[in-house]
């Protein structure tokens, strides 16, 4: 049993930390940075950050050197996530391209696809999104109805996608469409590398309950893709989808480390807030609640490390990732809910009037409702755990 | 034994329900969020015409002279449609205070205004620091030439711009205990008072900070005994919390209906999701919470109306259960709706935000735990003693 | 809205209370009564109590006068339950006979059945049990396999019943058996009034986790019943079963009042037990927990009263009884679990060594595990509420 | 990064698992309940032969000189089969105390006895009144002629009849604080000491009340510094609680296996009940509890072994989570089994009862909350200070 990082890993951390201190946006670390709320300006900000990461050699650390990566180990990826969470680094606008599309193309893409897309993903020149969910295919992804019909060397695509992160900024989409209506369910689905900048593609924003806009609906009206833009075989896209998910080998590391960070900030809040001149932490009811949260936050981090150990030993992640996802997302929601309660009636103050900087707790609280839904609802995770890990019989619906 | 609202009460509910349904239920709240208050104003006028604002006002002042139980249907329906505005505060907090502690002059003026629906009240209690305890009251009230001079800041005043009058908690003598606090009625238009709006996570309710700089008020604007405003207020809070519980029951009922409806029509894996026990049983848990909240709320209002011995614990516990359960089931409702529940477009989030608004509104959760414990004789502390 | 009892109801209460004070077993009210733990002697004790109730006119208060009842109103039945709970009266050994079998026979029994059984149920001369559940038919009662095969005017019955309360003391059994193998599920079931005192019937005790013996397995090996012992029509027993359940019009009143009583005793315990010279009730963590329990105990009582109001108005109980059952049984389990925790490590002391009289908390705690299972598990109650009250679609299994 | 037991540890677990499986798992516990202790005795002898009793004893005294992490497999397996007896108390509480605080003479005698599996220890801490706090220690220890004279009563002494020796908490000077308490090693066969058995809800563990009437003990039977037994004990409790967490993980693992197995084979409504989400998801929740308890327990033992800075909070929280989760999932296991789970015949209830036994064993739940809070620097009170 060993919880330490190797000297090499710590050197890697030091290198990254030094780079971040020098390259994060002006005023980022001391909280004086002003990021524009104008959507267009924010998009430029995110693309600039992506570009900066690329220039520093930090955009795609796990990639092979020949594609411009540094062949980081899994543990170095972990360190990378810890450091990014620590400084609350800006969002990675090309996450889908770097962590999903490019590794999949490296594995099963054609030579043409590799040379055409991978470099531009790395530089951030082309931002990618994912075209999976549809209004009637959420938990049940195999129910997608978007159709692609062959027309010479072209495919005519019609349908609607939803929950497309950064779809409004994306240049290309890793899109699932049904190419065979007679095959049921998982069969007959094909993956296309769709050009988003064409008349047949329209994105509309989804405004979330926290007032933010991360997701989009994507309407496909006779959108065009070419044979050369198919990944793997026609009708065999389900396998590609699974392969793509396998590339997220750090699982929900980012969320685990964020939870740990939020817990630590909650401890500070509980010591700072006062009622009748006593810090809230002096209140036995609050203290008990905080010990419970501490215990489970530690538990979820340690569970994650235990699963990570398995991944390191087996070379690939197992179904245990579902357990991490379930526990961390539910606990995050609970912890953030508690953060609102602890502020008393002042907890309802929002945005610039919130009692802590940047409406940190209120915004994270509202956002947390999406975490137990996106990426597979908690109910779906429980089915997966019950069936794949415990071997219980499958639901009758499937 | 008859634990139900009577026929007249249920019939009146029907009128209010229909009226608010016709107005598009949460449509008014959504317009209010966008800054359009016209439809709210006309809705409130309509409700006054229905009689909602006069139910619990004495007949002397143009009211119907009815009690807390008669208020329940209206309260529930306002909760159901997340109605913005100060109906709850005005009719369930200020009216009982005026009825019991108001001078004849105050009653003549304010009760008549409320009864005919032309005026509403807000409450200026919290100050920067956010404590509802007596030690949190630092707004200085000095007596000069038979006038009161107010200096200080009030924070998180609900719907300050909508209100015509405020009841302000001020300190009329030195110290930081509950002694020396007085309730003062102030018009929104008082000079030397500035209003600065504050952003509320529940956008169907607005908040504001009021700054008092030598605001001068006639002595006769004090409500109830001088220096004993804290005890006076407790009386109003009993009524307020019984009513709040009913408002929440109305909201909870709507939340359960939303969950049931969606679970019947939304299909995944070739089945309506309500067929899956993960969904079905969660909605059942929500329904159990709703019915328990309802029983506790109805009983609390009965206990208030009948002046029952256990009214303080009944009201505290009804409030505690309702606020807690409302947060729980409105959150669950988002989960049941999945992705769509996370969007601004669907009402789910409005109920969560209202639940959070009520959670520590006019007293913290812990305060009400202590109040219930004291009323039950489980506590030696007098932190929550009710002077009735 | 009115929570009062009428003068007539209060007079009824007074009459019963007076009778109980005079007729409860020696030393019962002051806790000095010694009931034998010998199973045979305990059986005699219970039968004597049943006889005493009969003699006092308190055995079957809701029955019509012509059968020896006093035609009590529903509210008088409620008062009856309150008073019985208040004095912790001995168990009613002929509960099944009085509350289920006899009312059903009055409704749909033959004249011969009425004259043969009803009077003996009232006097306690014949004790009845219920033959419903089987090892493979618990939650799914329609899956019963016990068979009855016609042989002249006799039926030969084979199979096994389980969870038969007081089966070891019973003279007769209200038995469900399958008389038609070709009809599936609810069809083809017939109700027999089986004589328990015959060679083909053998009862074996089920020892519970609390060490007690309330339930039995009943083995039927060529047991005999006659045509005259069939209730209703052959193959139509499901309807009879439903009719029988409808006679329990007070629902779970007894359990609600018992919960209320247990809560009040828990308050006393919390005031009596001390830690460092302070009563536990002075501990804010305990007090908060107690307020929560108070709130929900009150809530379940008030829910029950609200449903009772509906029953009074409609003349018959509705599906809301499932809500009462679910809430009260779950809350009882939780409250009793809390009672063990509050006693600290001394909470493990059992039987004569328990720190409160008669191992009250320990025994009730262990027994409470059965309450969320027997009479329909909590899971089944939730299905019922979801489907019958909320109108959600039925489970696929059914 | 390697958060797992090593190969040797897992291999050793395999031996112990096989040994206890061959002995029929809970069969020994069930015979113990019936009063038959022979199979337990022979099982314990066999476990000693496997080396279980010598793992964490120094090589000087016949042990293997290994640490807490090496003890985990044995502890888990004893929890899995609900093994009666004092392995946990002897090896995880008394051995670390003797190793750190024992005189050379004490070590020679007791560690050798424990190592070869011939002797076991129990702990006489509680007194009538049931408080684990220092104020609960009233057994009077007087010094006379270089001997100690003990008078008083100890209650809920675990497996007093199985133990060969007790560690007794006695008061060697006046007062009711933690100062003046000493730890004294006493043989079961000491004269003037009577043993009266007490009925335990967990019948796999026996309890007894010990009455001391002028029991005379040589001075050299004091363990650790005179008057400072409380602080000494805390050191042993860290080790005990880390180990207890591992025992509970073993029990929880078995509980989850029982639930999964039953849900696969039990059919209702024509389906294995594990197909219903009400059952499936509940078992998943149990599994989540199990794995979290395991992570916390393993880490706690690692922190103990590595003398990590956060060891006190790690151990307190591992214990708190494990005891709480064990009660929860063992209760859920009965519900999943339905009626059969309520019978004496099936093991479900044995796990519930063991869970209740551990809940407040050697320190209340609230004590460990306070201990964790103090260790985390969240508390000003010194009620839980650990003197290491």
TrEMBL record, chains A, C:
Output the SUPFAM superfamilies linked to this UniProt entry.
Acyl-CoA dehydrogenase C-terminal domain-like (SSF47203), Acyl-CoA dehydrogenase NM domain-like (SSF56645)
Domain called Acyl-CoA dehydrogenase/oxidase N-terminal: residue spans: 7-125
Q: Which UniProt keywords apply?
A: FAD, Flavoprotein, Oxidoreductase
Cofactor section: FAD
Q: Which residues form the Acyl-CoA dehydrogenase/oxidase C-terminal domain?
A: 235-390
List each copy of the Acyl-CoA oxidase/dehydrogenase middle domain by range: 129-222
UniProt signal peptide: none
**What is this protein called in UniProt?**
Acyl-CoA dehydrogenase
Species, as recorded? Peribacillus butanolivorans
Starting at the broadest rank, the lineage of the source organism is: Bacteria, Bacillati, Bacillota, Bacilli, Bacillales
Automatic annotation (TrEMBL), chains B, D:
Q: Name one GO molecular function term.
A: acyl-CoA dehydrogenase activity
**Reported cofactor(s):** FAD
Acyl-CoA dehydrogenase/oxidase N-terminal domain residues are 7-117
Q: Which Gene3D superfamilies match?
A: Acyl-CoA dehydrogenase/oxidase, N-terminal domain, Butyryl-CoA Dehydrogenase, subunit A, domain 2, Butyryl-CoA Dehydrogenase, subunit A, domain 3
Instruction: Please name one Pfam family that this protein belongs to.
Output: Acyl-CoA_dh_M
Keyword set includes Oxidoreductase: yes
UniProt keywords (A-Z) are:
FAD, Flavoprotein, Oxidoreductase
Acyl-CoA oxidase/dehydrogenase middle domain span = 123-215
Is Cell cycle set as a keyword in this record?
no
The Acyl-CoA dehydrogenase/oxidase C-terminal domain is annotated at 228-375
Domain of life according to the entry: Bacteria
**In which family does this protein belong, per the annotation?**
Belongs to the acyl-CoA dehydrogenase family.
Protein name per its UniProtKB record: Acyl-CoA dehydrogenase
């Amino acid at each position: 049993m060993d919880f330490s990082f190797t000297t090499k890993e710590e050197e890697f951390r030091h290198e990254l930390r030094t780079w971040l201190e020098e390259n994060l946006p002006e005023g980022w670390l001391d909280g004086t940075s002003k990021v524009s709320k104008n959507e267009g300006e924010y998009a430029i900000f995110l693309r600039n950050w992506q570009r900066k990461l690329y220039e520093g050699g930090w955009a795609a650390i796990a990639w092979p050197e020949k594609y411009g990566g540094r062949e980081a180990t899994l543990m170095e990826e972990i360190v990378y996530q810890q450091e990014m969470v620590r400084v609350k680094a800006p969002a990675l606008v090309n996450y889908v391209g770097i962590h999903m599309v490019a590794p999949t193309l490296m594995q099963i893409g054609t030579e043409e696809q590799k040379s055409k897309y991978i470099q531009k993903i790395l530089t951030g020149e082309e931002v990618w999104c994912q075209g999976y969910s549809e209004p009637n295919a959420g938990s049940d992804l195999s129910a997608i109805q978007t159709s692609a019909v062959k027309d010479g060397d072209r495919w005519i695509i019609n349908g609607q996608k939803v929950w497309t992160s950064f779809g409004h900024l994306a240049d290309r989409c890793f899109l699932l469409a049904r190419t065979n209506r007679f095959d049921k369910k998982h069969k007959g689905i094909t993956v296309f590398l769709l050009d988003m900048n064409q008349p047949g593609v329209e994105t509309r924003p989804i405004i979330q309950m926290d007032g933010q806009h991360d997701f989009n609906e994507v309407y496909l009206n006779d959108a065009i893709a070419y044979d050369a833009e198919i990944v793997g075989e026609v009708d065999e896209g389900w396998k590609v989808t699974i392969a793509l998910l396998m590339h997220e080998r750090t699982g929900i590391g980012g969320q685990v480390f964020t939870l740990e960070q939020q817990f630590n900030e909650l401890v500070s809040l509980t010591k700072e807030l006062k009622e009748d001149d006593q810090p809230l932490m002096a209140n036995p009811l609050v203290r008990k609640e905080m010990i419970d949260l501490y215990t489970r936050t530690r538990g979820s981090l340690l569970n994650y490390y235990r699963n990570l150990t398995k991944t390191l030993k087996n070379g690939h992640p197992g179904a245990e990732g579902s357990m991490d996802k379930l526990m961390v997302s539910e606990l995050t929601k609970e912890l953030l809910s508690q953060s609102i309660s602890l502020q008393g009636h002042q907890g309802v103050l929002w945005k610039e009037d919130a009692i802590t900087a940047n409406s940190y707790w209120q915004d994270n609280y509202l956002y947390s409702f999406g975490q137990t839904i996106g990426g597979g609802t908690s109910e779906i995770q429980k089915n997966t755990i019950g069936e794949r890990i415990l071997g219980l019989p499958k639901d009758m619906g499937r | 034994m008859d634990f139900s609202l009577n026929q007249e009460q249920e019939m009146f509910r029907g009128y209010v329900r229909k009226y608010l349904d016709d107005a598009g239920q949460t449509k008014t709240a959504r317009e209010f969020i966008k800054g359009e208050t016209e439809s709210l104003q006309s809705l409130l006028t309509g409700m006054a015409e229905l009689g909602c604002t006069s139910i619990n006002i004495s007949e002397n002042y143009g009211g119907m002279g009815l009690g807390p139980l008669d208020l329940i249907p209206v309260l529930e329906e306002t909760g159901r449609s997340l109605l913005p505005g100060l109906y709850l505060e005005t009719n369930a907090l200020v009216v009982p205070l005026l009825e019991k502690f108001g001078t004849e002059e105050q009653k003549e003026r304010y009760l008549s205004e409320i009864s005919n629906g032309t005026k509403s009240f807000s409450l200026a209690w919290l100050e920067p620091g956010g404590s509802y305890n007596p030690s949190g009251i630092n707004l200085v009230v000095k007596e000069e030439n038979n006038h009161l001079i107010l200096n200080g800041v009030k924070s998180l005043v609900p719907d300050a711009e909508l209100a015509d009058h405020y009841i302000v908690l001020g300190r009329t003598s030195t110290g930081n205990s509950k002694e020396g606090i007085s309730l003062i009625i102030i018009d929104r238009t008082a000079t030397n008072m500035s209003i600065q709006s504050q952003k509320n996570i529940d956008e169907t309710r607005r908040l504001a900070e009021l700054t008092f700089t030598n605001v001068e008020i006639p002595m006769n604007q004090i409500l109830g005994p001088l220096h004993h405003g804290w005890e006076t207020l407790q009386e109003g809070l009993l009524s307020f919390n019984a009513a709040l519980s009913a408002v929440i029951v109305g909201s909870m009922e709507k939340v359960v209906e939303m969950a049931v409806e969606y679970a019947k029509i939304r299909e995944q894996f070739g089945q309506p999701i309500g067929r899956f026990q993960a969904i079905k049983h969660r909605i059942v848990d929500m329904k159990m919470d709703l019915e328990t909240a309802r029983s506790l709320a109805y009983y609390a209002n009965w206990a208030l109306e009948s002046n029952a011995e256990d009214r303080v614990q009944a009201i505290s516990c009804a409030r505690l259960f309702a606020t807690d359960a409302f947060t729980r089931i409105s959150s669950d409702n988002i989960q049941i709706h999945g992705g769509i529940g996370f969007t601004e477009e669907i009402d789910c989030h409005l109920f969560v935000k209202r639940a959070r608004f009520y959670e520590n509104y006019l007293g913290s959760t812990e305060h009400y735990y202590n109040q219930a414990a004291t009323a039950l004789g489980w506590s030696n502390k007098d932190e929550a003693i009710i002077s009735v």
